[in-house]
Amino acid sequence: MDFCCCSGSCINLDVLENALNTDGLTTGKDSGAHHLVERWVGRTLRFGVWTSAGLMVAGLLLAWLSAGSLRLPSENPPPGEVFRSLLAGSLDPVTLMFAGLLLLMLTPFLRVLTAAAGFAAEKDRRFVVVALVVFAMLLGELVFSLR
Amino acid sequence: MSTVSFLLLVLGGGVAGTMGAMLGLGGGVFLIPFLALVFGLPMHQAIATSILAVIATSSAGAAMNVERQTVNLRLGMVLEIATVIGAIFGGVTANILSGEVLSRIFAALLLFVSFMMIWRTRSDIDAAAPVINGSFSSSYRDEATDTVVTYSVKRVPVVLVISFIAGNISGLLGVGGGIFKVPAMHMVAGMPMKAATATSNFMIGVTAAASAFIYFAHGHLNPMIVSPAVLGVLGGSFLGVSVNRRIKGSFLPWIFAVVLVLVSIWMFWRTL
């Protein structure tokens, strides 16, 4: 049995029903409802990529303008130091670029947290746990690397 | 850093991103040889830079694919458990190995990628039978055919193992690992090619982030190099997607496969 909606898309309802009656690990249960997780995750990714790209562009432009006085640190600074410097209103080109890099590296972390929140809003507890497991592993790697 | 070096990085990143997007690969396969062989960057720094570029292109692409629902979000998140574990092991291992050893492993990977590119041109690859009574069922709207495609997935444990290997290669060599995951998700799990590609790309950002801080802590991320390279790859990948819509032909994978074999030989030769 086919169902065609006003936008012209057709869904074979028999196939859809079969797909929904599987082992419970289905994504179909919310397919007609909200797609809340997808929307939130999409926005988080977009925010992370474009903000970090903006910080890198700003850093590179300032570095180009202050080419003579630019000093690169001998080793990568701790993330906390970069954010403190940024919050203090620093427009140091290297700080801006590091902030861009760190935000880019943290975007997947934010994406996993957003997915956990979205699954929670959709009352899909099993995938809240999956998302939190992924987040815990990422956090463990971050702490292990920077300790 | 001179203006010439800056422009070279943006241009090199742009070409790597364009070529990667045209072939459905991440930019890493092309960016790392450029950084190591042309720009003369140490292998660890080239890998670290590529990891950042991979996070950027994956996230930008995934933002669109997630909203179009071509990404199987729940399957992707389960497989990420395997890719993240693999990537952490890969990142730690890479920082123990020397640049020469990494270059040789990368040269071997390039040969594998060129083989896979040719193998993917086989016309029967896209003919995997749809899985109806599997798990992780999902549906998306295929814009090309203007229909809603409904599917489910089988043999998830096998795909988990392959995802672990893909994550390991990603952390070790700074590539996305889609060249392993996409065929596995399509041929083994029975996912439609579009959903397999989108889901694999979606996972790559988290996989790359799992090893990124290991490289950061080892001081392999130079913002003056990473920033122009990442911006170049990001711009190039958008260009590649747009070019890909206009140029269709089976000759492209063959040309790039030959290029990758030559780069592989160059990379291996340099370590002797």
Helix content of chain A: 55-70%
Class inferred from helices and paired strands of chain B: mainly alpha
Number of strands of chain A: 2
Global morphology of chain A: elongated
What distance separates the N and C termini of chain B? 30 Å
Question: So how many helices of chain A?
Answer: 5
Task: Report on the architecture of this protein.
Chain A has 147 residues and is mainly α. In chain A, 67% of the residues lie in helices and 4% in strands. Chain A has a two-stranded antiparallel sheet. In chain A, β1 and β2 form a beta hairpin. In chain A, α2 (36-65) packs antiparallel against α4 (93-121), α3 crosses α4 and α4 runs antiparallel to α5 (125-146). The longest helix of chain A has 30 residues, at 36-65. The termini of chain A are far apart. Chain B has one domain (3-270). Chain B is mainly alpha-helical and 272 residues long. In chain B, a hairpin with a 4-residue loop joins β1 (135-142) and β2 (147-153). Chain B has a two-stranded antiparallel sheet with strand order 1-2. Chains A and B meet through β2, α1, α2, α4 and α5 of A and α3, α4, β1, β2 and α8 of B.
Present the secondary structure layout.
The complex is a heterodimer of chains A (147) and B (272).
Chain A: E1 2-4, E2 10-12, H1 13-20, H2 36-65, H3 79-87, H4 93-121, H5 125-146
Antiparallel strand pairs in A: 1-2
Chain B: H1 3-23, H2 28-38, H3 43-67, H4 73-94, H5 99-119, E1 135-142, E2 147-153, H6 156-173, H7 178-188, H8 193-217, H9 223-246, H10 251-270
Antiparallel strand pairs in B: 1-2
Helix pairs in contact in B: 1-2, 1-9, 2-3, 3-8, 3-9, 4-6, 4-8, 5-10, 6-7, 6-8, 7-8
Notable features of this structure?
heterodimer; A: about 150 residues; mainly alpha; two-stranded antiparallel sheet; 2 strands; elongated; disordered N terminus; B: about 270 residues; two-stranded antiparallel ribbon; globular
